[in-house]
Design a protein that fits this description.
The structure is a single chain. By secondary structure, this protein is an alpha+beta fold. It has one domain. It contains 2 helices and 5 strands, in the order E-E-E-E-E-H-H. It has a 3-stranded antiparallel β-sheet, with no helix packed on it. A two-stranded antiparallel sheet has the order 1-2. The longest helix has 21 residues. The relative contact order is 0.16. It binds zinc ion (ZN). The site of zinc ion has 8 residues, from loops.
Length: about 100
């Protein structure tokens, strides 16, 4: 299944507060509204969330978070996001999202 990038209505990461406007995923086709139950992984901080029926984000239930965090792709992407954040911190001297 192809990796698809879609512009979606803005939504805000529940952890870092950054506004996200693009959805990337293995959804098979471009989408404007993420399907309810689809999960979100913030590209800035790596936090996980779940899309609701009205296209907003909510905190995942414990069983959802455990399920998502067991996915090797999710773990790898979170690891890369943390490394990028650490490299930015080293370059700028600023604290990364993960240090907060
Ligand atoms: Zn975030």
């Amino acid at each position: 299944m192809p990796l698809v990038h879609s512009e979606v209505p803005e939504f805000v990461c529940l952890k870092c507060g950054r506004t996200l406007t693009v959805l990337t995923g293995f959804v098979g086709e471009e989408v404007r509204v993420p399907p309810p139950g689809a999960f979100s992984l913030c590209v800035y901080c790596g936090d996980l969330a779940v899309f609701t029926d009205d296209g907003r984000l909510r905190e995942p239930y414990d069983f959802e978070r455990i399920d998502m965090e067991q996915d090797p792709t999710v773990r790898n992407v979170q690891r890369v996001i943390k490394r990028i954040g650490a490299m930015k911190s080293d370059l700028t001297g600023e604290r990364s999202e993960h240090d907060r």
